[in-house]
Amino acid sequence: MIALETLRAQIGRRLPGGRFSVEPYEDWLMRDTVLAGHGDDPAAHPLWAFAGPQAAMGISIDELFTLCGAKASDGPMLGETDVELLAPLTVEKVYDVRATIVDVQRKSGARTGVFDIVTVEMEAATEGTPVARLRNSYVFPRRQA
Amino acid sequence: MNARVGDQLPRWRNDHVDPARMKTMALLLRDSNPIHFDGDTVRKLEMGDRVVNQGPINLAFVMRMLGDWAGGLEHLRRIRVRYLGNVFAGDAVVAGGTVTAVDEHGAECAVWLEVVGRGRVLEGTATVAPRSP
pTM to 2 decimals? Predict the structure, then answer.
């Protein structure tokens, strides 16, 4: 199990960040996947305020897991999500993403055993203007060998 | 939107959570976690024998319920949720909510998603306010 001090040293770590845009076919697939329907809405589905920044935070989900001393097969889960939509996202527009690890907590429960919660804040902006903020907490079960 | 505190939001129901959609979502999210597409991994992790719906899909079900009520997804301003449990392939789910505050800008709502017969798997709050096109 990763040492708590090692994990807590990640607090404040700025991830590389990146850019994303939503192609019309990707928005079609997103809407189809979440049963949102296909209207003439010019805005991208609001779940892109989750999917876009997470995909463009500069490291992959697998790399985030590695940074947190875990791998996908350990069964990490989402704990909490906070999505703030300052403006609707638009298809085919480029968004810049900044991402920072902002919190680490170690907890334990009788049923769950030890688990760590790592929180990442992300922001998507266009031409310097923020349009969406995302705060995700990832839960890492720490199964004993 | 003509909301009053205590109003129940019209519920939205999905009778069969489809595992094929989880595969598409894994690609859209660039999320390699195999519990969403590989039943063997789910069994190895002793999580049952059905693949697990992605949390963001569960979140989107609540967004759908809010959008239907508000007259469009573009009116959603903020949503904060805790994931309380898993939704598995084949489950039936219902999303709902209650208006908890109203002002000149919009409404605050308590929202939830429930697996039929098993209880709540997601709870949170949402802010909905009309947005001009």
Answer: 0.94
